[in-house]
Automatic annotation (TrEMBL):
Chaperone in keyword set: no
Domain Metallo-beta-lactamase: residue ranges: 30-150
Pfam families (UniProt xref): DRMBL, Lactamase_B_2
InterPro entries: DRMBL, Metallo-B-lactamas, RibonucZ/Hydroxyglut_hydro
Gene3D superfamilies: 3.40.50.12650, Ribonuclease Z/Hydroxyacylglutathione hydrolase-like
Keywords: DNA damage, DNA recombination, DNA repair, Endonuclease, Exonuclease, Hydrolase, Nuclease, Nucleus
GO molecular function annotations of the record: 5'-3' DNA exonuclease activity; damaged DNA binding; endonuclease activity
Top-rank lineage group of the source organism: Eukaryota
BP terms from Gene Ontology: DNA recombination; double-strand break repair via nonhomologous end joining; interstrand cross-link repair; RNA 3'-end processing; telomere maintenance
Domain DNA repair metallo-beta-lactamase: 241-290
Homology family: Belongs to the DNA repair metallo-beta-lactamase (DRMBL) family.
Entry protein name: Protein artemis
Length: 290
C-alpha cells in the first residue's frame, strides 16, 4: 500500500502517484503504474499533464475515457517537461507498464522508484543506473519491505516454478480438478499470471470486471478467459466453478506477508489441507533494496 504523499520537495509543482489534497495545486503529474493504491484522487480533469509509460497510457484511456491530458514517456529517453527540468522513465519490473522516474535539472538529480523488483542482472543491463550511481541528490524508494523481517525473498522465477508445479500436479488428476490462484490484491500479480499462461498453455478464468482492465494491454493477450478453465484467477468470492461442491479445488495464495524471516534454505510453500501459501513478491526484499 503506497503511503507516499505525492510531492517532491526538490521539484515544486510536481506530484507523483497521488492526486488529492495539496497535490491538486501541482501543475505536472506522474503515475508510476496503474495499481489503485498509487491512483488516489486520479480523475479526468487534472490541472496539468499526466506523464505515464505507454502501457499505463493504454490502461488509463480505457478507464478514464474523458482524460485528454495524458503524455507518454518512452523508456530510457530523456524528456524536457518544464523550465529546464528533464525526466527519464526507467523500467521498474513491478507490473506491466511500471516505471521509475529520474528527475534532473542543472542543480538537482532525484530518483523516484515507485514499486519495483529488478534482478541484479536487470540493474546491470539498464545503463542509466551506471550513469547515476553515487550522483543522486535524493532517492524516493519503495519501502514496502524495508524491514529486517524481510531480508530475503525467493526469485520470482523460483516462486513461479513452485506455483506452476502445484497447478500442474493438481489439474493433471482429472478435468474435475481446478486450481484457484488467489492473489492478495486485485492488481500486482500480472507477471505471475502471464507466466502461468505461458508455461501451462492454458488461459486463466477471470471475472468480467477484472478482465476489462486487461483488454487493451498487449502483454496480457490470451492470458485470461471468461470461458471454462481448470485454472482460475477470480476475485473473491470466486466464480461458481471454484465454489462448486462438484469440483475438486486447490487454492494457491501467492503472498509475501506470511514469510517473515524467510531464508534461502526454507521451503517456499505452506500447506493447510488443500490451501497453499507460496512465498511470492513483486516488491524488492531488504537485501535487494540494499
Amino acid at each position: 500500500m503506497s503511503t507516499f504523499p505525492g510531492q517532491l520537495s526538490e521539484f515544486p509543482g510536481v506530484s507523483i502517484d497521488r492526486f488529492d489534497g495539496e497535490n491538486c495545486l501541482s501543475s505536472l503529474f506522474f503515475l508510476s503504474h496503474c495499481h489503485t493504491d498509487h491512483m488516489t484522487g486520479l480523475r479526468d480533469n487534472l490541472p496539468g499533464p499526466l506523464y505515464v509509460s505507454e502501457i499505463s497510457a493504454v490502461i488509463l484511456r480505457n478507464r478514464f475515457q474523458n482524460m485528454t491530458n495524458i503524455r507518454t514517456l518512452e523508456i530510457g529517453v530523456e524528456t524536457d517537461i518544464s523550465n529546464g527540468v528533464r525526466v527519464t522513465a526507467i523500467p521498474a519490473g513491478h507490473c506491466p507498464g511500471s516505471v521509475m522516474f529520474l528527475f534532473e535539472s542543472a542543480y538537482c538529480r532525484v530518483l523516484y522508484t515507485g514499486d519495483f523488483r529488478l534482478r541484479e542482472r536487470d540493474v546491470r543491463n539498464i545503463r542509466i543506473f551506471q550513469a547515476i550511481q553515487g550522483k543522486l541528490d535524493n532517492l524516493y524508494v519503495d519501502s514496502t519491505f524495508l524491514n529486517r523481517d524481510f531480508e530475503d525473498f525467493p526469485s520470482r522465477v523460483d516462486s513461479t516454478d513452485a506455483i506452476v508445479n502445484l497447478i500442474e500436479e493438481w489439474i493433471s488428476k482429472s478435468s474435475n480438478h481446478i486450481a484457484w490462484i488467489k492473489p492478495p490484491a486485485r492488481y500486482g500479480s500480472e507477471y505471475l499470471f502471464k507466466e502461468i499462461h505461458r508455461r501451462t498453455g492454458k488461459s486463466l478464468h477471470i471475472d468480467l470486471d477484472n478482465l476489462s482492465n486487461y483488454f487493451h494491454i498487449p502483454d496480457m493477450d490470451g492470458v485470461f478467459t471468461l470461458h471454462g478453465s481448470q485454472i482460475h484467477a477470480c476475485w473473491n468470492p470466486g466464480c461458481s466453478a471454484v465454489r462448486s461442491e462438484a469440483k475438486e479445488v486447490r487454492v494457491i495464495r501467492p503472498t509475501a506477508m506470511f514469510w517473515r524471516k524467510w531464508k534461502i534454505s526454507d521451503p517456499l510453500t505452506m500447506r493447510t489441507c488443500n490451501f497453499f501459501r507460496v512465498c511470492y513478491s513483486s516488491h524488492s526484499s531488504l537485501r535487494e533494496l540494499r
